[in-house]
Amino acid sequence: MRKLGKLTSVVLSAVMAVSMLAGCGNQAKSGTFKIGAIGPFTGDAAIYGLAVKNGADIAIKEINEAGGINGYKIEYNSQDDELDNEKSVNAYNALKDWGMQILVGSTTSGCSIAVSAESSADNMFQLTPSGSAKDCIATPNAFQVCFNDPNQGIASAQYIGGNKLASKVAVIYNSSDPYSNGIYEKFAKEAENQPFEIVSAEAFTSDSKSDFSVQLQKAKENGAELVFLPIYYAEASLILTQSASAGYGFKFFGCDGLDGILGVDNFDKSLAEGVMLLTPFAADATDEKTQSFVKKYQEAYGEIPNQFAADAYDAIYIIKAAIEAANATPDMSVSDLCEAMKVQMGKISVDGLTGLSMTWDADGAVNKAPKAMEIKNGEYALIQN
Fold this sequence. Notes:
alpha/beta, Rossmann fold, 2 domains, seven-stranded mixed β-sheet, 14 strands, 17% strand
């Protein structure tokens, strides 16, 4: 009986050891990937920054609940830059002190460019979800999720011309903003190949963005049928309001910067009816991935997500794909992690909310197709061509 008891004891010990090992295999590995985010969570561009913050948060929760990246969980820290370049750099430094290894940001082009000087010096992997100026990816550590400005300008001119939306077009743009200026320059060049004429191109600056009567009057005097607005939603809402007050009947067409205009405080949404824009995300798309994201976003934040939220959601999954392809781990140095991910960015293809089979060129720019949207009944609707 003693021999049987001893044998039983050995077997039970072995079973317990196997169970413990199995249990360890189901647990997350020690260490975490620390991802930081920067954007304007207060001020005029808060609609952008909060959307980026929230979209990334949803993706991170999904990934952590599914076991993390290569078995490692993600820690997430987001900082407000108030759409100020200097504050964006300060936010970067605060995140670096926290231990950030990868940056999702900055949200806007000017801030992203300012921060990239710092991230480049540290050789930290930087993926801006919505900074679209070409200079956002001037450093080899930086990549984009959204279209860059040249592509937006070219695509907008081609869409307006290809769909014969107007024969005479006016442009109102911000000459002091890299985003707006970059889109306008390529739009004007591509317009030479299209069946429409730019009859006026009037600029404003960040110091004079409240009264657009002169720009609108020039468009009217020159017979413009459509006004192209490669600008952000705050200024666009003023332009639409002032145009309606003056009794002008322009069509309006913009880029991803107009995504957010329906959320401007005290703005009459009916004035945006019929506004068209090129954007990579349609919240009313019927695919399962989009529907799931929109449902989660609405449940968490009580509103329909815009393109910036979708860009940030995709950014996290792009980072996941690059880390997995590199078989990277959190104990790698910031620089080694960046080098490993950079190699994989030239190889991976990612299916996201904002594009299928997204790839990246040697300059860090994304390759994907834009979608045309029109505001109907106070909502963004995909234009079916």
